[in-house]
Amino acid sequence: MVAGISVVIPNYNGIHLFEHTLPTVVEALQHVNKPNEIIVVDDCSTDTSVAYLQQHYPEIKIIQNKVNSGFSVTANNGIKAATYDKVLLLNSDVKLTPDYFANQYKYFDKPDTFGVMGRIVGWEDEKIQDGAKFPYYHGSKIKTSGNYLLKDERLMQDGLYSMYLSGANAFIDKEKFLLIGGFNELFSPFYVEDYELSLRAWRLGFKCYYDYNSVCRHQVSTSIKSKSKKRYVSTIYDRNKMFLHAIHLEGVQRLLWYLQLIPEALVRIFTFRWHYLKSLSMFMNASEQVNQSRLQFETKSKALGTRCSIGEIKEFILSSIKAEKVIL
Questions:
Q1: 117-132 burial, b if ≥16 CB within 10 A, otherwise e?
Q2: CB 164 within 8 A of CB 132
Q3: How many CB atoms neighbour CB 257 within 10 A?
């Protein structure tokens, strides 16, 4: 595979963002002495995104989905088409700082590195939106910590282990991405797919990092305004969390998680969160696809000869910082 950087940007109606974000991507790539390219994968936008790119950025490669397919499919299409061995998967609403890539290549000197994400802060402020995380169990549920940092910033110069790479700025090894199967398209149209990909990578023996010194800026979405749209988003999010648990929990933990679905549904009904029933129905109707995802993981795990549990991943990450003062 050719050494270099491919920036893959999934897009849906993002023309209003391009004038703010694309110049920062171009500038960041100019600071890297490596071959590079930018690929925008358009997911059937109804605005003039494609025409804008063709006019203002003719050097950008454009891939157009035939049907609106959601994040997982769109990201997979772009990464598979990437020319180079390292891929930055980048949201269309993220701006890069000029030296964004300066500290990221060192992680790939380690042969088991799957990827690294940078520090995501606000569009106009320094508030951290997404950072390093570790997993834990709450009962039978898989939970994720809040962003964790070390009090002494000097100790973060070599990065922190992180449970997952945000799909907003994941710099990944393309070969390993393809090896473990890419994003699970069962999670389309959006949410939780980046967590599941990262968890799968960890369980198959790879590692994910958070680099505090690589800064990018993210504009928080304000597009979801209607109640019906918010309910739909909540429905998909809850369904996808169910997919995550059903695919990755094992043994007693998995049995207990299934047993608690009904009482949890009753609680949601009594608190008038009716969308949860729709989530549960969608989850149950996809049981065949869930089982197929589990089988694919089992096959890949046997082929690679590794199978880490969520508990083992938690202990590994926490052991790396146990002697330090942690900020959550």
A1: bbbbbeeeeeebbbbb
A2: no
A3: 19
Cis peptide before 189 (omega within 30 of 0): yes
Which numeric CATH code is attached to 1-328?
3.90.550.10
Q: What is the pTM of this model?
A: 0.95
Helix (H, G, I), strand (E, B) or coil at 121: strand
DSSP per-residue codes, 255-293? HHHHHTHHHHHHHHHHTT-THHHHHHHHHHHTHHHHHHH
The DSSP letter of residue 66 is S
- Asked if 139 and 256 count as a contact pair (C-beta separation under 8 A), the reply is yes
What does the alpha-carbon distance between residue 31 and residue 44 come to, in Å, rounded to a whole number? 32
Quick: pLDDT tens for 135-182. 888 888 998 888 888 888 888 888 999 999 999 999 999 999 999 999
**SS3 at position 108:** helix
- Work out the burial of residue 242: count CB atoms within 10 Å of its CB; fewer than 13 is exposed, 13-18 middle, 19 or more buried: buried
Percent helix, strand, coil in the chain, to 5, is 45, 25, 35
Reported confidence tier of residue 321, pLDDT bands at 50, 70, 90: confident
